[in-house]
């Protein structure tokens, strides 16, 4: 209970309490709004106008632009209702040549899936009452950027804003400094009215900070980066505003990742920021590095530093795999900054840019009014009164109610974040929270934070099993007790709930651009070159695989009218005409220039007259003679270029030229020609410019050469285009040939007269000639050295760069002593590129030179760095291997080590030393450095580094054992340990396997080791012991089990066990399912390979084709084909297997059965064929005599009847026919008539058969190819005898019945 005294009237008290209640409601609503914002999805947010469109007041006929910048994700769709331009996040509405009817209110509408937002701007168009020159506005804002603007001094002015000395697309590297700037020219200039300068990155305004500073000097605007980071990459825009008018200019800045300290290590993570802050923890998020170093990123280390100190501490012992992490263990009320480092298998990369400071405070506690239970007097001041509040002790505490709105706001593999609202019933005390969890489907609730109660209504849980499902609930507590639990959350599966963004790479050598959306404009491309691109997605869980590479895209310049020509000069002047020359436009618009148009005007007393066309038809050259001019008249000129896109803007007005007669237009001859550095195939020719340069300056030189004895018409030019240097290295000379040289100067008028001849000079390398040699000493100092053995007492060394003396150069230092000279570079850089030559005076042209180009510069700087900071050469980087007993060996090898070499062993950035766990060894003779560990345990997961120091030289090598890599290595070490233990007793050196022998039997075999006489071996099939006749003697270490004629009955699981008093080992072989099929395939293959060649056998029925195999199994499929077609089986053509014989029977063969027969034995995978060709066999198979048919097997006929039989025979030649009775020849007579007609038909007739005719008859056909016999039986019966016999049989049957 609180006691309140108010020193005001009751009405006043009512006012105070009412306002206090309103204030409390306001604070409560503000808190709820804050939490609502706190819990919203950070990856999706509604459109927001960063820069709203501004209202404008303009004159008629003037152009106006409305600009706005909009943020939101997904990227909002912007709708205008006029001409719109959207560029790099800046949206523009342009109204050309404003009319009075354009006065209105304009709306910009931005929309995405999260909502729609609009902004408004008014445009007021005024009419100009005085004279108005419409021609000043015809070109539009793009060619004449003028505007009426109202200054703070209240009058209308025309401002023209130009950007000079502009910054271009820039490339920098992380850690460097960079400045972007341009000169701003504003006309007219008004004192005390300075422009407003604003810089933007990707459409977002920039504010000065620790990393970026802006400067306006009055005429130049500068943006300076003190320490470039990858986050600084983007499109930069400078906007200069003068009153109501502004102009802007943009260019892209690319930032390359800094070189990693460890080659292959990842780059620094990006955009480290605080997602939310509480008393108990702060959630930090970041983006993946743009470069992973060539191997996947394994995780991240997070560092924290308390503001005001320089002490960084690591927040996590093992790398986290997600780009989000709750940092705990913070002190309430203190501020912290954070940074993140990425790690891959090579090592740890550079730390990221530090985050903004953030305080460990609970926002909900700030939003709620609270007072201490035993606090001091509080005075709340309000108008016209003082409200006194006196604390007192509670007579009885209230147990708080359950929290409300408990939910899981974030779930990853590493942690889960819970959020809830405080209970409505909580008394006046502060409350704390206890979080409980249980696995889904159970009621086993466990308190998570027993030792450390939570003060804020958000909590991060760690150590949850990935893939399991959990429920959570929260209880409140105070001094009165612990309240009831909240409602449990829904089932939550520990996994990822993260969003996505895109990254793009491209440009041949792959360049990564981070944080782009679904489209990206790539700057810095070279016109005419081809590029390929690829994309991959990124979210907090990591990077996806790259997309398929795009097709090669050639960069082509956009076609537009060319820019204006420039540098108009008068090449020659006559009494009534002038020859003008000009330079081609800087930008040709992406298409070839097709011609030029020239305009001119008279200038009288400094006042230009009316412009006139000089040519109706376009001229193709950069020069034109204008005729019909007035003598002694002054003229000005303009030139416009044209291409296929149209006519470009005219050039700036030229200087005034007077039309009068000129003389001596071309330059004079160069002089003082000199040959030096003469070698067998080259020399250097030098000269001085002509004294008289003609009407225009000398623009270059042409060098001609010919052999000394050649005629004048044999001069040839060495350079097709004029060179600007006053020297040329002539190459391609023939050794021993004498040459002469001459030089001609050229200016805009033409080529002048040639110089005097230089030479003759013989192309030869004189004995003792030496060259300039580059040297890098142990301190990394780079120098050029030259030595001359032919110096005279008066001789001196003269150094030059590009054949200009370097005597006063502050970047070089020359030291000469005796016949040696050395030129040292103080700080070799890009400014030092060029040809360095050393001449020796008072000699016969002794000289030498050395070229330092960009490639050589890089080589020398790298060599200098290696000498200044030497490294111990490494033959093998740090590697890990598992030894026989499961020991882990870390080792690397240096190329050489001295006796003073030292090695530091580092594990997770802490040095480790020799002891029970680690054994170190260095072999300085071989350079091998080793560290041994008996066993890999879970706490050994991390990064191992060997740091080498050998005198001044250093080096290091790192191996990362984290995650799956560590688990695989740990598993392999444990396997090797168990293998070593197994091998201490009898064991299998080679486990059980099978082999199919040449006899098509299956042999199960294994190889054993470490056995003795007492060692027993037992075979099992399907867990039943197999009795083996033979006793193994183990002499050869091979144990076998032979299975003959292997078939389906032999399928099963085979096992062999070795055992003695030292232990036992076993090996199993499964011959079921697929394994059995594989073995049977091999058995069938062996059987098929054992098949003999097909043979032909003539049988009584016809022809038999056959082959023998070792043995036959049903799994072996047999197929026959005849002349490429499968054989159709019938009663005449049959196939089968008899024992080990596989055969094809062709009965009664005919000529149609000739041809090629193939027997294919299919083992399940491959077909094995045997072939025989019946076409080339003897005629006896097909032309031998044979009986085709017609004779029955048995003939039963009544006595006295006539028997007539007809039979068809065949043979070539026609066969001879004979008959047999009871295996004796039968001749034809009146009783038995035998006929054979046409060589095809045989007739057999018996007239009046009797019982004597009963018997076995045979028809024998025969020709020279063979014979065949067809037998039949004739049975003659008497009817009376048959009846008598039937009656007799009936009587016998009756007696038996009685």
TrEMBL record:
GO cellular component, one term: myosin filament
Database matches in Gene3D superfamilies: Immunoglobulins
Gene Ontology molecular functions: identical protein binding; structural molecule activity
Listed SMART domains: FN3 (SM00060), IG (SM00409), IGc2 (SM00408)
Keyword list, A-Z: Cytoplasm, Immunoglobulin domain, Muscle protein, Phosphoprotein, Repeat, Thick filament
Highest taxon in the source lineage: Eukaryota
Subcellular location per the Swiss-Prot or TrEMBL entry: Cytoplasm, Myofibril, Sarcomere, M line
Fibronectin type-III domain span: 268-363, 402-496, 561-662, 669-768
The keyword Phosphoprotein is assigned to this record: yes
TM stretches of this protein: none
InterPro entries: FN3_dom, FN3_sf, Ig-like_dom, Ig-like_dom_sf, Ig-like_fold, Ig_I-set, Ig_sub, Ig_sub2
Keyword Plastid attached: no
Chain ranges of the Ig-like domain: 47-124, 152-254, 760-858, 986-1072, 1197-1275
Function: Major component of the vertebrate myofibrillar M band. Binds myosin, titin, and light meromyosin. This binding is dose dependent.
PANTHER family for this protein: MYOMESIN-1 (PTHR13817:SF16), TITIN (PTHR13817)
Protein name: Myomesin-1
Species of provenance: Colobus angolensis palliatus
């Amino acid at each position: 209970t609180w006691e309140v005294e108010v020193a005001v009237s009751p009405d006043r008290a009512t006012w105070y309490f009412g306002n206090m209640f309103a204030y409390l409601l306001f604070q409560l609503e503000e808190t709820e709004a804050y939490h609502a914002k706190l819990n919203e999805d950070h990856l999706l947010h509604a459109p927001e106008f960063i820069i709203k469109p501004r209202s404008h007041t303009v004159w008629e006929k003037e152009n106006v632009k409305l600009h706005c910048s909009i943020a939101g994700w997904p990227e909002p769709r912007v709708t205008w209702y006029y001409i719109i331009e959207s560029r790099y996040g800046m949206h523009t509405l342009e109204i050309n040549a404003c009319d009075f009817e354009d006065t209105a209110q304009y709306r910009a509408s931005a929309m995405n899936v999260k909502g729609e937002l609009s902004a408004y701007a008014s445009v007021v168009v005024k009419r100009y009452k005085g004279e108005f020159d419409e021609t000043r506005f015809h070109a539009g804002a793009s060619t004449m950027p003028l505007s009426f603007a109202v200054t703070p001094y209240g009058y209308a002015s025309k401002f023209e804003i130009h950007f000079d000395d502009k910054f271009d697309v820039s490339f920098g590297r992380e850690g460097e400094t960079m400045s972007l700037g341009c000169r701003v020219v504003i006309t007219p200039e008004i004192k005390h009215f300075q422009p407003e300068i604003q810089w933007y990155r990707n459409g977002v305004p920039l504010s000065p900070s620790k990393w970026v500073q802006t400067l306006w000097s009055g005429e130049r605007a500068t943006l300076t980066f003190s320490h470039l980071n990858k986050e600084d990459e983007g499109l930069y825009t400078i906007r200069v505003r003068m009153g109501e008018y502004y102009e802007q200019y943009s260019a892209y800045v690319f930032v390359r990742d800094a070189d990693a300290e460890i080659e292959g290590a990842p780059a620094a993570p990006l955009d480290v920021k605080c997602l939310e802050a509480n008393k108990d923890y702060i959630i930090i998020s970041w983006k993946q590095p743009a470069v992973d170093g060539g191997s996947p990123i394994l995780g991240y280390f997070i560092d924290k530093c308390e503001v005001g100190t320089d002490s960084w501490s690591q927040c996590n012992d093992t790398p986290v795999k997600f780009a989000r992490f709750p940092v705990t263990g913070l002190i309430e009320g203190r501020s912290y900054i954070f940074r993140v480092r990425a790690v891959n298998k090579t090592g740890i990369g550079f730390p990221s840019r530090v985050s903004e400071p953030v305080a460990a405070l609970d926002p909900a506690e700030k939003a709620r009014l609270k007072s201490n239970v035993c606090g001091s007097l509080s005075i709340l001041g309000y108008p016209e009164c003082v409200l006194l509040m006196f604390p007192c002790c509670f007579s009885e505490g209230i147990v708080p109610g359950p929290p409300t709105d408990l939910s899981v706001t974030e779930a990853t593999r590493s942690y889960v974040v819970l959020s809830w609202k405080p209970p409505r019933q909580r008394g006046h005390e502060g409350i704390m929270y206890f979080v409980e969890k249980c696995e889904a489907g159970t009621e086993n609730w466990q308190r998570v934070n027993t030792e450390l109660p939570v003060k804020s209504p958000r909590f991060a849980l760690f150590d949850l099993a990935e893939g399991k499902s959990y429920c959570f609930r929260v209880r409140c507590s105070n001094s009165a007790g612990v309240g009831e639990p909240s409602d449990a959350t829904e089932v939550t599966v520990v996994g990822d709930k993260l969003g996505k963004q895109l990254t793009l790479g491209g440009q041949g050598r792959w360049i990564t651009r981070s944080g782009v959306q679904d489209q990206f404009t790539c700057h810095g491309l070279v016109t005419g070159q081809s590029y390929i691109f690829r994309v991959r997605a990124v979210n907090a869980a990591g990077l996806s695989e790259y997309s398929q590479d795009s097709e090669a895209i050639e960069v082509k310049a956009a076609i537009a009218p060319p820019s204006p020509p420039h540098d108009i000069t008068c090449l020659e002047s006559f009494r009534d005409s002038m020859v003008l020359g000009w330079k081609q436009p800087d930008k040709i618009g992406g298409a070839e220039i097709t011609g030029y148009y020239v305009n001119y005007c008279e200038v009288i007393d400094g006042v230009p007259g009316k412009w006139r066309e000089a040519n109706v038809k376009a001229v193709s050259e950069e020069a034109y003679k204008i005729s019909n001019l007035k003598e002694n008249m002054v003229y000005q000129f303009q030139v416009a270029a044209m291409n296929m896109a149209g006519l470009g803007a005219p050039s700036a007005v030229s200087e005034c030229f007077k039309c009068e007669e000129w003389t001596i237009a071309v330059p004079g001859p160069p002089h003082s020609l000199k040959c030096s550095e003469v070698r067998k195939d080259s020399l250097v020719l030098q000269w001085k410019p002509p004294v008289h340069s003609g009407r225009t300056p000398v623009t270059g030189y042409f060098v001609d050469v010919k052999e000394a004895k050649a005629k004048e018409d044999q001069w040839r030019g060495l350079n097709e285009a004029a060179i600007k240097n006053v020297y040329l290295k002539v190459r391609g000379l023939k050794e021993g040939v004498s040459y002469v040289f001459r030089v001609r100067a050229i200016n805009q008028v033409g080529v002048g007269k040639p110089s005097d001849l230089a030479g003759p000079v013989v192309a030869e390398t004189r004995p003792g000639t030496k060259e300039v040699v580059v040297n890098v000493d142990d301190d990394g100092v780079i120098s050029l050295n030259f030595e001359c053995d032919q110096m005279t007492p008066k001789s001196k060394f003269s150094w030059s760069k590009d054949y200009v003396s370097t005597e006063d150069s502050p970047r070089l230092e020359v030291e000469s002593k005796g016949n040696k000279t050395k030129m040292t570079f103080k700080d070799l850089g890009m400014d030092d590129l060029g040809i360095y030559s050393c001449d020796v005076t008072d000699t016969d042209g002794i000289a030498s030179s050395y070229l330092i180009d960009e490639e050589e510069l890089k080589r020398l700087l790298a060599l200098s760095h290696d000498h200044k900071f030497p490294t111990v050469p490494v033959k093998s980087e740090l590697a890990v291997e598992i030894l026989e007993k499961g020991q882990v060996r870390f080792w690397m090898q240096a190329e050489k080590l001295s006796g003073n070499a030292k090695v530091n062993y580092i594990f997770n950035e802490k040095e480790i030393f020799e002891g029970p766990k680690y054994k170190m060894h260095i072999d300085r003779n071989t350079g091998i450095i080793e560290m041994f560990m008996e066993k890999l345990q879970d706490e050994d997961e991390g990064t191992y580094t060997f740091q080498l120091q050998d005198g001044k030289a250093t080096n290091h090598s790192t191996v990362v054992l984290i995650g799956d890599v560590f688990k695989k290595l740990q598993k392999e070490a444990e396997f090797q340990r168990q293998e070593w233990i197994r091998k201490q007793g009898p064991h299998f050196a080679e486990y059980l396997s099978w082999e199919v022998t040449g006899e098509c039997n299956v042999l199960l075999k294994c190889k054993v080791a470490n056995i003795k006489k007492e060692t027993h071996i037992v075979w099992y099939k399907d867990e039943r012991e197999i009795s083996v006749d033979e006793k193994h003697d183990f002499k050869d270490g091979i144990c076998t089990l032979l299975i003959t004629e292997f078939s389906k009955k032999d399928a099963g699981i085979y096992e062999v066990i070795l055992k003695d008093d030292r232990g036992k080992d076993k090996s199993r072989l499964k011959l079921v399912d697929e394994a059995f099929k594989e073995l049977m395939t091999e058995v069938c293959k062996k059987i098929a390979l054992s098949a003999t060649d097909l043979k032909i056998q003539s049988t009584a029925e016809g022809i038999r084709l056959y082959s023998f195999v070792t043995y036959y199994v049903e799994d072996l499929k047999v197929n026959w084909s005849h002349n490429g077609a499968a054989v159709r089986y019938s009663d005449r053509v049959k196939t089968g297997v008899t024992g080990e014989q596989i055969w094809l029977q062709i009965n009664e063969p005919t000529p149609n059965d000739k041809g090629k027969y193939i027997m294919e034995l299919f083992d399940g995978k491959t077909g094995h064929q045997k072939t025989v060709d019946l076409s080339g066999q003897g005629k006896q198979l097909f032309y031998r005599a044979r009986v085709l048919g017609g004779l029955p097997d048995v003939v039963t006929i009544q006595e006295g009847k006539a028997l007539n039989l007809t039979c068809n025979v065949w043979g070539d030649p026609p066969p001879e026919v004979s008959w047999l009775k009871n295996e004796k020849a039968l001749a034809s007579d009146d009783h038995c008539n035998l006929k054979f007609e046409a060589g095809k038909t045989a007739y057999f007739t018996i007239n009046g058969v009797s019982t004597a005719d009963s018997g076995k008859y045979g028809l024998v056909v025969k020709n020279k190819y063979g014979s065949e016999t067809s037998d039949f039986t004739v049975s003659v019966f008497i009817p009376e005898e048959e009846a008598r016999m039937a009656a007799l049989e009936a009587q016998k049957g009756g007696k038996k019945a009685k």
